[in-house]
Amino acid sequence: MAKPFYKNVLLKLSGESLAGDQGYGIDPHTITTIANEVKEVVALGVQLSLVIGGGNIFRGLAASSKGMDRASADYMGMLATMINALAMQDALEKIGVDTRVQSAIAMQEVAEPYIRRRAIRHLEKGRVVIFGAGTGNPFFTTDTAASLRAMEIGADVILKGTKVDGVYSADPKKDPNATKYTQLSYIDVLKKGLAVMDATATSLCMDNNLPIVVFDVTTDGNVVRVICGEQIGTIVKGE
Ligand code: UDP
Fold first, then answer.
1. 3-class SS at 72?
2. What are phi and psi of 49, to 5 degrees?
3. Which residues pair with 159 in a beta bridge?
4. Residue nearest to atom 6 of ligand 1 (CA)
5. Per-residue pLDDT tens for 42-60?
6. What confidence category does residue 172 fall into, taking pLDDT thresholds of 50, 70 and 90?
7. Ligand 1 contact via 14 beta carbon (within 6 Å)
8. How far is it, in rounded angstroms, from Cα 57 to Cα 80?
């Protein structure tokens, strides 16, 4: 059996990673595939929590650029992340993985409120905790929510699952000369403006020395590979 390198992991999934090829909404096949990987990770005895974005449904910034009030649009974005959180909970529970959804915005009929100590207890009991509704504050992103929650629960690492297999010097789809970084420092990310996480999330990780691994979550088995310490994707850490 594979031996985990990380013991307490926060997996950040973009909303888009649930959309599959359709590019929007939730693709049942894609979410089931990710749920199966999560199940494998939990079976290794790893404490796993999830933060899922909402970009497959609604993005505050995009709506505000078309004239909507930014704060209202951001609250809608946070609600979108709850839709994804509930979908992921359903996919995981169907395959026998115990989960709890905790929301940063009170909605007691559908999810527990975010309570740090309770989240830690769930993780100790082997439950997957899905943190929904971002940070609960407009003008933030789910990347920042992921950094914040990871710090609060004492995670060893943030795994940022994307559709690309790491961080590149330029967009590999547009620039044939784009090269992939295997390792970066937080300062590199901030100075070069690389699309790892937004600046708020990156500086939060830098201040608390929390490594981030950016990897391709759409390839089967990659979550387990990263957790077992295989060098795939790009790792961002202190120098
Ligand atoms: N959002 C927010 N505060 C948070 C987290 C998210 O206002 O703490 C809103 C914001 O409008 C954002 C949307 O929720 O556009 C969806 O999150 P995000 O864009 O981070 O999702 P992803 O790109 O990861 O799918």
1. helix
2. -120, 160
3. 11, 213
4. 141
5. 999 999 999 999 999 999 9
6. confident
7. yes
8. 6
Q: Which element (helix H / strand E) includes 83?
A: helix 70-94
Residue 2 located in a structural domain = no
Cβ atoms of 204 and 144 within 8 Å: the answer is yes
DSSP readout, 13-69?
E-GGGGTGGG-SS--HHHHHHHHHHHHHHHHTT-EEEEEE--TTT--HHHHHHTT--
- Residue 143 belongs to domain with CATH number: 3.40.1160.10
Name the pLDDT band for 229 (thresholds 50, 70, 90): very high
Structural domain count of the chain: 1
Q: What is the span of the domain harbouring residue 197? A: 8-237
Q: Cβ(145) to ligand 1 under 6 A?
A: yes
Q: Whose CA is nearest to atom 16 of ligand 1?
A: 54
Report CA torsion sign: 180, 55, 161, 199.
positive
pLDDT tens sequence across 18-31: 998 888 999 999 99
